[in-house]
Write a structure and sequence with these properties.
The structure holds 2 protein chains of 2 kinds.
Chain A: E1 2-3, H1 8-35, H2 40-47, H3 68-81, H4 83-102, H5 105-116, E2 124-126, E3 142-146, E4 149-160, E5 167-174, E6 177-184, E7 190-196, E8 207-218, H6 231-263, E9 265-266, E10 269-270, H7 275-303, H8 309-335, H9 346-355
Parallel strand pairs in A: 2-5
Antiparallel strand pairs in A: 3-4, 4-8, 5-6, 7-8, 9-10
Chain B: E1 4-5, H1 9-35, H2 42-54, H3 80-94, H4 96-99, H5 106-115, H6 118-125, E2 136-139, E3 155-159, E4 164-175, H7 177-181, E5 191-197, E6 207-213, E7 219-224, E8 235-246, E9 250-251, H8 261-298, H9 314-341, H10 347-377, H11 383-390, H12 400-412
Parallel strand pairs in B: 2-5
Antiparallel strand pairs in B: 3-4, 4-8, 5-6, 6-9, 7-8
The chains are: A alpha+beta, B alpha+beta.
The structure holds flavin-adenine dinucleotide.
Amino acid sequence: MYSFDPTEEQQMLMDAVKKYAENDLRPAAHEAEETTELPKKLIGKGWELGLLQASIPESYGGFGERSAVTGALAIEEMAFGDLAGTLAVMTPSLFATPILLAGSDEQKKEYLPRVVAGEWSPFTAALIEYAFDFDPNDLKTTATLQGENYVLDGEKAYVPFARGAESILVYAKLDGQSQAFIVGKEAEGLSVGEEREKLMSLNALPMYRVKLENVKVPVANRLGGAAGHDFDILLASMRIANAATAVGVANAAFEYSMNYAKEREAFGVKIAQKQAIAFMLAEMRTEIEAIRLLTWEAAWKLDTGREDAANEAYLASTGAADMAMMVTDRAVQILGGHGYIREHPVEMWMRNGRGVAMFTGLAIV
Amino acid sequence: MPIEFEAPKPITNAQFVLKTVAEEMMRPKSRYFDEHEHEIPWDYIEFMHNAMKAMGGSSLAPKENGNGKDADKEKRPPIGYQLIAAQLEALSWGDVGMYHCLPGGGLGAAAVHSAGTADQRVKFLSRFNGDKPTFAAMCITEAGAGSDNSAIRTRAVLDEKTNEWVINGEKIFVTGGDKSFTEYEKLGRGFIVVWASIDPSAGRAGMRGFVVEGGTKGVKVVKLEHKMGIRCSDTAAISLVDARVPFENILGSPTVEKNNAGFKKAMATFDATRPLVAATGVGVARAALEFLKEKLAESGVKIRYGLPRQKLTSIERDVIDMEIMLKSSWLMVIKATWMADNKKPNALEASMSKVKAGDVATKITQKVVEILGPLGYSREFLAEKWMRDAKITDIYEGTGQINRLVVARQILGYSGAELR
Ligand SMILES: Cc1cc2nc3c(=O)[nH]c(=O)nc-3n(C[C@H](O)[C@H](O)[C@H](O)COP(=O)(O)OP(=O)(O)OC[C@H]3O[C@@H](n4cnc5c(N)ncnc54)[C@H](O)[C@@H]3O)c2cc1C
């Protein structure tokens, strides 16, 4: 059957997340972006919603079951509030969710309870690299087997909360494939840059370069153990998360500019009464819906183990990049000169919107 | 039911069967009927009529509810509109023009179905299960009233002596008008639904649909249009001069209320039919995209999915973008019809699906012709025909602009007066 209704439980979760997004994340977003600081309390409150905890079974310290559909629904709602805040709240999943999905039993036992027990703490992952043609399936960071250890070499970029992170899940190329390795903060040869990344947006999210020089990782710390793991599902989960956050950001921009257009007057009518504006809004809404449905389908395919799930996630994430840019650009246009001024959030969303093309790896469902 | 994307069995079955029909009965004749405009594809019509009868009902109009023997089926979530959407998509993958020659009620029956009484449904719709293939058509558009269909001039006046409506006016662009009205030996008696005003001073509130039986005196097919595409589908101009129809052939109330209820009901038909028209656009777009991928594969071009944009060739980017458009457009059709099946108000989703499909069908078919270069433009292949066929998606059942207006009014909460 086709069906488009979230379950009651999902709806309750979405409502709770929406409340947090609207009452907490959104009001704090502007200042966080300008001061480059996200209040710890704000992150803590988001963490208490328990999105990650609810995706981890009781036996590993959580209280639920992971579903990509649920994750996509929730993270869209949160990103509607603020993208940087969302990525910060969800950073520990970058470390925990791959372990849940692909880790060995020992890895799950050792790490999952530590991540989800108690307060938000900086566990993170490093996928992105600093190259114009960065390709998650063709990493420049390498892993080579030397005796009991894998040796990692390379440089990672855009790693959230790398400074102070307990452990980092580092992706590297091993025998032509992307594989993840659990690297503790004390590992020799691991160095986190002093300076934060300076990007067009996400200024509130502390991200760093991470260098790996001859870092030795015990074989047991390869994700999934010596046999490794399937990277495709992890990448698909990241792409779905990326697409879902894009939908949230785009929806924020759409709603804000629509409400503005219903208030703002020009030539004696509300600007929304002009077709040039109304048609932009209609197309924004239509494209948001298109990518939202594609994202849901990809998530559903992942949850049900369909063969084409990974490809669908790729299509959703690729489509989301265009959609988010288009929608957020138009939101600025609808506000005119006022849209260009930082007092209104649309310019930030437009900067976020362009980032969707680069952000795969900053969130996972 | 939670969020799910599993196509129900009846849909996958229909898609399977209709793919064969499309490949065997439609594609081989596509070019012929494109080049012989106004010839009627009798073989296809008869085949489809028999095939649909064998499948248990010849009308594509959704089955009636409250019909005792279906009580068991009704416990399952209804999928009538979703199924029709899948059927139309599959047939339009075969040939959009020939799809319009599918016997059954089409838009005319849809109007009776949504605006008529139970008696009228029985009286007018049961013919589609008869021995001969039978057609019906919808006549709203006039030379002076297209998008603004409240401007129609056709009048219906009640002759109280005979208790008949007397209709005068001229309709244009009636899809299937010829097959629905002209009496062909191989066809059952069809009808056209003519929209007319019973009280011009009342504006929209005075508009009603009238079922005009095939062969009615005073009604004439005066012209068949020559078109850019869907040339197998007849597009008729029909004149009505003192045409008399029985009193009970009016759809909706014979008296004029203060509000627009009658007109709104007519427009509500669109909430059901727009996603179906969108589905036909998705079908032809899929045909074009699949053809492109075949031709590329033959030439040894592989599409490397999964790569970042920066590493893709321009053709790969185009193909991937087209797939995103096509898949998401289809999901919008499914969502809009799913809402219709579940009696959820879907005016927004119906029009969004049509906006999207109008864009997607035109963009994909045009891009495919471009990428295929001299092959795409050649009449040796069907790509150029599909581009001509696809364009209609963005014009009928509300142009792209009109559907944008509907979407905008829905999201803004505006009336027609506030946003025109
Ligand atoms: C092949 C074919 C089959 C058809 N089948 C049927 C049928 O079966 N039954 C039937 O009744 N009709 C049918 N139609 C008619 C079709 O629905 C109309 O052509 C369509 O609604 C547009 O009307 P129009 O051609 O008068 O264009 P117009 O209304 O004159 O529009 C011209 C342009 O102006 C734009 N426009 C109009 N109003 C606005 C506005 N308010 N804001 C912004 N832009 C606007 C339109 O989008 C369009 O781009 C068919 C047409 C064709 C070509």
